[in-house]
């Protein structure tokens, strides 16, 4: 589908994105939305200690953000302010490589996001099943997953402001027990425990996948750029504060857990922080940590669904998807995008945790490779374009900055199992075929596509988002 196709005209069901006057997302809610899109707290980092021991786990969660998170956040800040609309990374790639590859990235990222979101209802129930054995499996578990998805989907339907302030509330509730745990642990801390490492026994695959899974998805916020108040300033600032919050949210609990109790690496699996809480503070603190874990999964779900659904809306506003994806509710939320994302979550929640994480990482890696290429190409193609925030590095320095994360991507891809590779490659092939099918359905007038008339032409070197 050509970006400037004359048949892409605005219709009543595909209103201009600027015609909606619902409240925009401000700095603090956006910080916590990013926090939940990336992290949600230390729940899920335990495997890093089991795989590599305390020293490498602590160093990993300090060094890995510099290698991966900071470059991705800087990329998102520059391109997100350069293209402040809901298509996010899809628009970046479309401008640099054309709408076909923009669609491919959109497909990979949306599918990766939905796969990621399928984890959270499952993990939510895993934290509750010890107290409610009926949630272990069967109909009660399936019914509860469905009810939870419906409830959180409705929250997304009601608007980003509700989602943002809910993220703040859940974030504070998730972080506070670790602050309390830290204070209680001070008399028990033994710094020598932090230095334990045995390079002969390190499970590098598990270690790297744990770091990667817990420190990616910084670009997800770009699909909400059109809903952000003053994105040129708010987006970079929110990414800066979120990076600090995420790193501290991982490092501080690991410092407490590895230094406050005797080391037994085999015990460091999902949920072990609740056991540490019981050792340090008793049953009341364990209950608080378990509740925080469950609430964290809810926060990650609503944040991820917001990004996924607004991405589909942004693609429809650019004429990449049928115009019914651009339909908004009276709250300004993308109705069809939310329903599609919810259905995908329900379907994929039947997969195992390991399969979900591996497939998600594989697809995400391909998408990030495209984004690194696009960042450099846009610097060369549109050097004078408006960039409210610009990474203070030249083109050569930028390439050097992206070299370590690119190498890391190839390592993660190489460590994937054959099954995960085959499933992920099949998903990529579906995307390659899906876009021509949509183009054909447009030509046959089976589906209607339209592009919002006040979005600038991505292939105009002087495109300007400031014009009404």
Automatic annotation (TrEMBL):
According to the UniProt record, one GO cellular component term is:
plasma membrane
Residue ranges crossing the lipid bilayer per the database entry: 25-45, 51-70, 82-101, 163-184, 239-263, 331-349, 361-380, 392-416, 422-441
Which domain of life does this protein belong to?
Eukaryota
Question: Which InterPro entries does the entry link to?
Answer: AA/rel_permease1, RMV1-like
Keywords (alphabetical) are: Cell membrane, Membrane, Symport, Transmembrane, Transmembrane helix, Transport
Predominant location category: membrane
Please state where this protein is localized. Cell membrane
- Family matches, as PANTHER family: AMINO ACID TRANSPORTER, POLYAMINE TRANSPORTER PUT1
Name this protein carries in UniProt: Polyamine transporter PUT1
Organism of provenance: Heracleum sosnowskyi
